[in-house]
Amino acid sequence: TSITSAKIHVNGVHLHYQQTGEGSHAVLLLPGMLGSGQTDFGPQLKSMNKQLFTIVAWDPRGYGKSIPPSRDFPPDFFERDAKDAVDLMQALKFKKFSLLGWSDGGITALIAAAKYPTLIHKLVVWGANASVTQEDVRIYNGIRDVSKWSEKVKKPMEEMYGHEYFAKTCEAWVDGISRFAEKSDGSICQQLLPDIKCPTFIIHGEKDPLVPQAHAEYIHKHIKGSR
């Protein structure tokens, strides 16, 4: 099945997405920090079961091909992404859909599942965190300077954004996400986790360099019935 690539007007911006498959189970793939559908989910778009699933991968505003606008990080940027993601799927006429979110996309998916429970069928998150600690901030500052990134990770980003936008947006992301650590509990969406009612599967990489495993354990503990 071919992969269509298009833009749709949602919440005042033109959001880019890719879509493939004709299955009755719609799934939205949510990319991580600075990521896009193509950079983060190329293999899934190609290889997920097209008979079972209709697969949509999106570029959040300011990322991938959803530019303009330039990406910014106001205090509610995760909530804004969650609303954009859900409204995108509704604009595409999906009544109910599942969310597969990686990293920042996982955080966005957690918020969307909590805030729009009637729309979300199932939830899978990996590399996600519901709060930011001082230790996390130290780790984030380690990736602030993109010239120190490995060539493998850096190359697709520079091809997509050009060096200047990539470098500037990464710095803005570090500042934006670090702001959560200034709150007493460091919470991004901890208070929302008990509102998630759909079946939830949490995956975590043992060697994840950016997100310590305690985050995955916290999410599992606070989403009732999650695995």
TrEMBL record:
Keywords annotated in UniProt: Hydrolase
Alphabetized Gene3D superfamilies for the sequence: alpha/beta hydrolase
Keyword Iron-sulfur appears in the UniProt entry: no
All residue ranges annotated as the AB hydrolase-1 domain in the record: 26-139
Short name of one Pfam family: Abhydrolase_1
Signal peptide: none
Molecular functions per Gene Ontology: serine hydrolase activity
Keyword Phosphoprotein: no
Full protein name: Valacyclovir hydrolase
